[in-house]
Amino acid sequence: MSALEDVSNEELFSEMMRRMKCSTKEEKRVILIGPPGCGKGTQSPFIKREYCLCHLATGDMLRDAVAKQTPLGLEAKAAMESGKLVSDDLVVGIIDDALKRPGCAKGFILDGFPRTVVQAEKLDAMLSKQGHNIDRVLNFDIPDSVLEERITGRLVHLASGRSYHTKFAPPKVTGRDDITGEQLIQRKDDNAEVLRSRLDAFHKQTTPVIAYYAKKNKVTNLKADASSSDVSNQISKVLG
After folding, report:
1. Fold classification of 28-153+190-239 (topology level)
2. What is the pTM of this model?
3. pLDDT tens digits, residue range 101-158?
4. DSSP for 23-81?
5. Which residues are catalytic?
6. Which residues form the Adenylate kinase active site lid domain (predicted)?
7. Share in percent of the chain as helix, strand, coil (round to 5)
8. What is the pLDDT of residues 161-199, one digit of tens each?
9. How much of the chain exceeds pLDDT 70, in percent?
């Protein structure tokens, strides 16, 4: 972390203005649900910025906890090294730890979890102990037939999670991130065969999660095969 005296006045002023804006925002706790290629990666930065929420991607959080050798991270590492799945309770514990960060004071976007009804129940129980609950579940509803073109043309900037598409949302410079100029990559699993397998798993495991939160009147179905700007407008109408 940079020393305060090394931060420019412009950066300090920008951060001050951001915090002033965020101080008036209502708390929101939002789950993003959708199959690979549905547009969650495109919309997450918009939601995070507009509503001053932290973005919790469980895969990234697990890797970070392991790298920092937190108690839960060490437990996760031990499980993975022994070939076991990381338990639902451990993932919920890592989420619980993350929510204590100042950046999560106004709430969060949760991406990649819960994937099953059991996980949803454990997440709700953890939040209930804090006197909170999930405010809204955004279901990125999109036909499977639309996803293949999206997936096979997707490019990502690993460090930030920013995503692009060779056809629908190309970077300003081919193969380079718009902000940093660093190289974009195509993930190894962004191909049609892997997509079909992932879609099958998604429909079997995660569709019941949508039904679980629908019973609680928490779900909003987004027309995710619309343009990026239109999906953003749909989200704004839902979250206010």
Report:
1. Rossmann fold (3.40.50)
2. 0.79
3. 888 999 999 998 999 999 999 999 999 999 999 999 999 999 988 888 888 888 999 8
4. HTSPPEEEEEE--TTSSHHHHHHHHHHHHT-EEEEHHHHHHHHHHHT-HHHHHHHHHHH
5. 40, 115, 154, 187, 198
6. 154-189
7. 50, 15, 35
8. 888 999 888 999 999 999 999 999 998 888 888 888 889
9. 98
